[in-house]
Each structure stands twice: as structure tokens, then as C-alpha cells.
């Protein structure tokens, strides 16, 4: 199975700050990567697919980048509604696997 | 509006079976791959598996392949997850999700609200 190592596990940032979350795959996943946001008590919601494509309706302050085994999610100008957990997922190979998540809180 | 509504969760004794349903609306159900993901309390996400449009292809995570069965009824716009030999490790929120795709890749574009399964005596 492809292992997805996500960092940091938790993050505290201020409103308006830029935040970056990293995800490293155990092998090349050829941009087969998505990012999801999960607010407390809610289901995950797609933010980014194919490593850098923004899902419909997602604010443009979210962006994804990377290639090979290294990927990142950037949130520009952090808003209070961005407090959530964030998960990466590879869908390059079966079984699809998720990162352990990053919990983002406000400082 | 894409809507996915899971049902069928609840308290079940160890060793028993349970079948979850996911009612889909707001899109042409028989045009999409569908999948299941679970999340143990306070934990991360685990991919269970997926099924293609006509049920001819079903993929599972290997550790659950002998316990769980994914199926669908396109006439009823409903996805199912049959779970057997349940143990405490299966206690989780179970989400169904619609896959969107391009070329060889597919990802979970829309998720249901989830249904909680608790395995306990």
C-alpha cells in the first residue's frame, strides 16, 4: 500500500496568515492526490483534486501544488471558517489511502 | 444539488451483520462510480472500496474484502454496504461518496453526512 505521511499533525495560525500543509507519498503518485476539509461534526468536503485543481465552489485562497511524492495545500489569508482538519488522499493506486490529517486551529 | 443520505447504522453486537444504505439524488446515479469511506471515533479516514456504474467492477481495501460487500441498485438510486462478522474495530462513521473522474483518476467529490455504526455487546 502507498503510505501518505502528512505534516504537521496540528497547526495553530492567526487570521490572515498563510498556512501550508504537506503530504508525502511513499512512492510517486503522479499527481493522483486530493485534499479534503473536515469541520468538527461534519463530513469531509473536497477542496483540491489532481494535486492542483480547485473543486467547484471552493474559495480561491485554497491552492494545491506538488509532484512526484511531495504535495502541499496552501491556505492564503486564513479565515475563521477554515478551522478544520485537513486530509490528503492518493488515488493513484489501490487501495486508496489517506494521510492521518492536520488539525488547524486559530492562534 | 447532489445529495447523499446514509442510513442503517446503529448498535450491533460483535459477530453480527449490518447493511448500510446510501440514497442518492440530484444527479444521474447510474453515471458515476460510488464509494464508501469510514472514520473511527477521533481518527482518520479509511477507504473501504468503490463500485462502478454497472456493478461489473468492485474494488476493496484488502483487509476488508472478506467482510464487506458493496453493491448498488441503479433503479432505486441506492448504494449499499453489507458488513459481516463485525468487531469493535468496525465502530466508525460510515460515509458514502460520489466519485468524479478524469482520464484514469477518480476522487470523492461529494460525501454524505455519514451513519454511525457501534459494535458492542
Give a nutshell description of this structure.
The complex is a heterodimer of chains A (107) and B (121). With 107 residues, chain A is mainly β.
Structure description:
The complex is a heterodimer of chains A (107) and B (121). With 107 residues, chain A is an all-beta fold. Chain A has no helices and eleven strands. In chain A, strands 2, 4, 5, 6, 9, 10 and 11 form a seven-stranded mixed β-sheet that branches. The radius of gyration of chain A is 13 Å and the shape is globular. With 121 residues, chain B is mainly beta. Chain B contains no helices and eleven strands. In chain B, strands 2, 4, 5, 6, 9, 10 and 11 form a seven-stranded mixed β-sheet that branches. A four-stranded antiparallel β-sheet of chain B has the order 1-3-8-7, with no helix packed on it. The model of chain B has no long low-confidence stretch (mean pLDDT 97). At the A-B interface, strand 5 and strand 10 of A face strand 5, strand 9 and strand 10 of B.
Write the layout of secondary structure elements.
The complex is a heterodimer of chains A (107) and B (121).
Chain A: E1 4-7, E2 10-13, E3 19-25, E4 33-38, E5 45-49, E6 53-54, E7 62-67, E8 70-75, E9 84-90, E10 97-98, E11 102-106
Parallel strand pairs in A: 2-11
Antiparallel strand pairs in A: 1-3, 3-8, 4-5, 4-9, 5-6, 7-8, 9-10, 9-11
Chain B: E1 3-7, E2 10-12, E3 18-25, E4 34-39, E5 45-51, E6 58-60, E7 68-73, E8 78-83, E9 92-102, E10 105-111, E11 115-119
Parallel strand pairs in B: 2-11
Antiparallel strand pairs in B: 1-3, 3-8, 4-5, 4-9, 5-6, 7-8, 9-10, 9-11
Amino acid at each position: 500500500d502507498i503510505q501518505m505521511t502528512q505534516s504537521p499533525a496540528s497547526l495553530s495560525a492567526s487570521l490572515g496568515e498563510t498556512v501550508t500543509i504537506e503530504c508525502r507519498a511513499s512512492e510517486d503518485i503522479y499527481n493522483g492526490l486530493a485534499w479534503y476539509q473536515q469541520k468538527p461534526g461534519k463530513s469531509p468536503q473536497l477542496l483540491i483534486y489532481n494535486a492542483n485543481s480547485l473543486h467547484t465552489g471552493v474559495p480561491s485562497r485554497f491552492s494545491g501544488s506538488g509532484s512526484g511524492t511531495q504535495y502541499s495545500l496552501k491556505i492564503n489569508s486564513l479565515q475563521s471558517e477554515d478551522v478544520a482538519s485537513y486530509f490528503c488522499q492518493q488515488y493513484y493506486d489501490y487501495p486508496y489511502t489517506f494521510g492521518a490529517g492536520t488539525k488547524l486551529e486559530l492562534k | 444539488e447532489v445529495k447523499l443520505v446514509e442510513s442503517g447504522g446503529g448498535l450491533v453486537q460483535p459477530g453480527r451483520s449490518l447493511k448500510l444504505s446510501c440514497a442518492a439524488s440530484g444527479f444521474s446515479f447510474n453515471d458515476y462510480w460510488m464509494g464508501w469511506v469510514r472514520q473511527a471515533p477521533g481518527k482518520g479516514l479509511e477507504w473501504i472500496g468503490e463500485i462502478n456504474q454497472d456493478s461489473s467492477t468492485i474494488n476493496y481495501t484488502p483487509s476488508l474484502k472478506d467482510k464487506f460487500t458493496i453493491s448498488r441498485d441503479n433503479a432505486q438510486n441506492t448504494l449499499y454496504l453489507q458488513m459481516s462478522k463485525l468487531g469493535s474495530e468496525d465502530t466508525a462513521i460510515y460515509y458514502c461518496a460520489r466519485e468524479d473522474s478524469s482520464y484514469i483518476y477518480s476522487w470523492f467529490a461529494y460525501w454524505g453526512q455519514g451513519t454511525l455504526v457501534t459494535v458492542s455487546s
